[in-house]
Amino acid sequence: MDRETRVFAESHFRGLRGRLPSEVCxxxxxxxxxxxxxxxxxxxxFKSYLLPNVPCVFSSAFTEDWGSRKHWVTPSGxxxxxxxxxxxxxxxxxxxxxxxxxxxxxPKEHMPLKDYISYWKEFIQRDxxxxxxCLYLKDWHLCRYSSAEGLxxxxxxFSSDWLNEYWDTLDVDDYRFIYMGPAGTWSPFHADIFRxxxxxxxxxxxxxxxxxxxxxxxxxxDCHGGLPYDVTAPEFLDSxxxxxxxxxxxxxxxxxxxxxxxxQVHNLEDTISINHNWVNGCNLANMWHFLQQELCAVQQEVxxxxxxxxxxxxxxxxxxxxxxxxxxxxxxxxxxxxxxxRLLLVKKISPGELQCSEDSGLGLQHTIFDISRIAEVLASVxxxxxxxxxxxSRFLPQPEDLLQQLQEALATTEPL
Length: 416
Known about the structure:
The protein is of the alpha+beta class and 416 residues long. 35% of the residues lie in helices and 19% in strands. The protein has two domains: 24-278, Cupin (Jelly Rolls), CATH 2.60.120.650; 284-411, no CATH class. The chain has helices at residues 3-16, 21-24, 42-50, 67-71, 81-88, 113-125, 162-170, 284-301, 312-324, 328-345, 364-382, 385-388, 399-411; strands at 32-34, 56-58, 92-97, 108-112, 135-140, 176-181, 186-190, 197-204, 207-212, 245-249, 254-257, 262-267, 271-278, 346-350, 353-356. Strands 1-2-11-8-13-6-5-3-4 form a nine-stranded mixed sheet. Strands 7-12-9-10 form a four-stranded antiparallel sheet, with no helix packed on it. β14 and β15 (353-356) form a beta hairpin. The protein starts with a helix and ends in a 5-residue tail after the last helix.
């Protein structure tokens, strides 16, 4: 990122202050297709898609050198079951049953990959049906293991990935996944976890995507406030009532899913895909807004015990984490880890002058941008009444002290 792009980005976010994600996201009438890698820069993506938070599709030219596209696929373009069995057959994988609705998702079981591939082969032989139902391998964390090396190269457009940077620091989890399944497998209507961005590459096969911009999902809620499980029902696909963008993703192509866009995805053929969820300075405020909404929903659900339950606010945080995967305390820890790593990247030389560590992987201007985004969101966090009820006595540094460090780092940069 150069200085001009940083100035452009920070001006963009100043214009968004106080506005909800659904109030600022444009509604395009189509999804752009990016054809050539050599004519499309990180700055192009950042300005045209990441900041305005709109989807796009990258051509297969962006992934043609990936190892997974060479080794996981037969010459006819089908999944190479023999290769997968030889290299990963004994690995236990999560498998969802697409034919069973459990709330707004599917129940999961775990099985060795060799058993899933055996099922998949039988499913194809039975003309894409099975008494076991339609099973879809989802959320396989293959990328945690060394056996994933060489499968893909992280596209530069998605390299500012705080979510996986944070979890890699803890070495306990990640948000990098493999999906694979026969034609007919699908993912119900949803928005991605924490209102993260995501990207998805078809290693082989084709997918059909249905996209709804932020806020459009509100028109789909039922009388109880619930969202639909399947938006392909005729009443939901009436474009006059509910604007929807449809995208068919071909083999090798890469889809960028913006923050807070609800979507539903169907495999049109036997398909394997690699998918990442990611958060950075461009959607950090969306994540914070979402977490506040999640806590509010929990508080409303258990409001009748507010006056009789000791530590009611603490229990709300516990419930929130069990439902959403994160609460306000861990959100602060997330901000702290990324903030401290960015502060280490910049060293003060003299007033108004900074240099960036050579091994950062980020340019100086991008590091300053990250610090400014964390500072803005953290300033909102520390004054939030519910965060002020969190026991922060063991936090190092204290949230207010970390905010001061960020603001002092920004003060050494040249004025915009």
